[in-house]
Amino acid sequence: MEQPGREMANGCHLGASPTNFRDANRMDQLSIFALYNTVTLGVEGTGMVSYAKTLTDAERWNLAFYISTLVDSPKQVNAGKMVWNRVKQIF
User: Fold this and answer.
1) 1.25.40, 1.10.760, 3.90.320, 1.10.287: CATH of 6-90
2) 22 and 72 in contact (C-beta within 8 Å)?
3) Greater confidence, 85 or 8?
4) 20 to 30 Å CA-CA from 63: which of 31, 32, 54, 78?
5) pLDDT tens, position by position, 33-52
């Protein structure tokens, strides 16, 4: 049985860049329903395949809600930048 996303593992890079789920500006544009639809239907011309036959309806809703929690707040982003800048100075 072919696994979703297998073509990506075989070196075929398709189209658009994936959504950065940690980008608050981008995630503010996406509803839970939009995330669910993306998981369910996939995105044509990209490596995002449909999981309609792989995951149950409840699993796809659970995944959509989980994805919505991955966003970083501006405070977290700034804290991360500060740590990164300190680490860069050490090395």
Assistant:
1) 1.10.760
2) yes
3) 85
4) 78
5) 999 999 999 999 888 999 99
